[in-house]
Amino acid sequence: MLRSLSGRFLILTVLFVMLAEVMIFVPSVARFRQDYLLSRLERAQIASLAVLADDAIDPDVEEELLRNAEVYNVVLRRNEARQLMLSSPVPEEVTETYDLREASPLVLIRDAIQRLIDPEPRVIRVIGNPVREAGLLIEVTMPTAGLREAMFDFGGRVLALATIISLLTAAFLFLAVRALLVGPIKRVIGQMQSYAAAPEDARRIIEPSAGITELRAAEAALMQLETQLTGALKQKERLAQLGSAVAKISHDLRNILTSAQLFTDRIEQSEDPTVRRLAPKLVNSISRAINLCESTLAFGRSDEPAPRLTLVPLAELVGDVIDGERLAVGEADVSFAEDIPATMTVRADAEQLHRVFLNLVRNARQAIVATGKPGEISVSAQEDDRAWVVRVTDTGPGLPPKARDNLFTPFQGGTTRGGAGLGLAISSELIRGHGGQLMLDDTGPDGTCFRIVLPKMVVSQEDAAE
User: Fold this and answer.
1) What is the pTM of this model?
2) What domains sit in the chain, N to C, each tagged with a CATH number?
3) CA spacing 20 to 30 A to 452: which of 77, 147, 268, 301?
4) Could you tell me the maximum CA-CA distance found in the chain, to the nearest angstrom?
5) In this entry, which stretches build a coiled coil (predicted)?
6) pLDDT band at 252, cuts 50/70/90?
7) Rounded Cα distance, 462 and 466, in Å
8) Dihedrals phi, psi of 212, to nearest 5 degrees
């Protein structure tokens, strides 16, 4: 109850109403005290007028007049003369004098609080203006016991009334909040839970119906979010189905093309000049198709393992890649250079890092061979306290604009003619799995430079979770 929105609203309402009543209570009690004293002055004035009407008033009558006025004595000032109109023995010394003629509200509040706090009965002197200007002033001496009891009685009735008002107000507000705010919020929560159970079902998308402007805006935003999420899930499902179909097609097509590649060996032995001239083109086309199928299958694998980090001799790994590419150069004029410290070791997955360097060096070699001009491919490495940095540079023709714009996008960032654009996308994904980055530093007519950054810091599972 206390942790719910309506429960806390109920408590706050009671507190605020009580605070408002307390702020009203203090001035009300001060006003009550002032009226109480003025009524005693008025009674005393009436008694003094009776004395003025009959100078030879009986002592018993005088005592009764004072008792009815609840005062000890009455002094009336008329015509600049101060006259003791009624008098009786005062049981103790007068302790305070209160002049009501020019008392400010703050003074009245202060005096009222002091009277409530002080439990001892006192004798006080009260001065005020006579009713209907029947004199210059009237002064009485009176006890405070009756005044304090009357103030407590009045204050108790005010607090009781305030408590009843606050409880009724809080109850009405509690019911109103539950009906107008808590109820619609619970409906939205229930709808969200229903949608979470089957987000692909468009029938579960919320329809804004709240009468409160802010809540209706929240429902509209939620409807838009759920609509987009449902569409994205459907698209993801379609893409997954399409990817599965493409993988199956690529697998079968690769097998067919592999068989066709075997037949081209016989075609190359033909004596027909036209066949001998066209056979290499056919072989190249089939090889590119096989590479496309293999790349598609590699990219579509969902079981790509996480990197198994070990200390890998970088110079040895890069040397293996370059040795293999030297054999593939054939008669082309392509040279290779390595600038890697012999003792440098990096923390990486050797197999995955080999795939990355093979892709970068092979792309560079193919780009240079395609120009028919001499070229050079160099791999250099350096390190600092935070990371290992490796650069793969070539003197080829540079990347075409389309490749630069979609460099690491699958099927769009191909760097060579007939390429699928998967090599760099896969390489970038593998490097990210190491916590590093694969970046294009520069490309242009004078060549291209890729940079690989592998961090040295090992991130713990706790830090990764944060």
Assistant:
1) 0.43
2) 5-169 (no CATH), 213-298 (1.10.287), 306-465 (3.30.565.10)
3) 301
4) 165
5) 215-242
6) low
7) 7
8) -85, 130
